[in-house]
Amino acid sequence: EVQxxxxxxxxxxPGRSLRLSCAASGFTFDDxxxxxxxxxxxxxxxxxxxxxxxxxxIGYADSVKGRFTISRDNAKNSLYLQMxxxxxxxxxxxxxxxDRGYSALGDFDYWGQGTLVTVSS
Amino acid sequence: SSELTQDPAVSVALGQTVRxxxxxDSLRSFYPSWYQQKPGQAPVxxxxxxxxxxxxxxxxxxxxxxxxxASLTVTGAxxxxxxxxxCNSRDSSGNLLMVFGGGTKLxxx
Lengths: 121, 109
Hints:
By secondary structure, chain A is an all-beta fold. Chain A contains no helices and 11 strands. The mean pLDDT of chain B is 96.
């Protein structure tokens, strides 16, 4: 059974940093591209960042480019999102999502339950 | 970057057929994927590629695409299909960049 478990969310002040983690199990982690997708309270889905199987290709939404860094550790079956210079508009539920392909196809076939990030003073 | 446009809300009578549309330039190059999200739950992939359904998704869900418009069709809508639906596509630039539509709230009457 595929499982994606996010952690690391919480309440943080504007301008501070937070690191999210996603622990993956139930599939061959280094066979899949991975993504972070967020959802602000009451709003729609927003793709945040993606990384292909070997970290050779990485992408970011314009809204987070230069502030967020995605990474993965295939030996630990883990995905990360380092979030710096956080803003109130980054407040959202952050989902880890598995791509159907080893390169990013954009078909997210499994999702975690999300970790909530709240940016507020 | 690309944008995908969806109608905010659509309704359908129980047992009838409804089409949810998604428009965007990237759809001329790539098939979208479609997601169903119910309140308090993570999204679920319902359609990907050229009308492919993941295991466990009922065959009343189907997808089609023409030009810059893609559609998710629910044939014989059930009460359990009431949810938010999102389309997603790769950006046509070739960079690793994805975009979601704004979502469509489907109400089953």
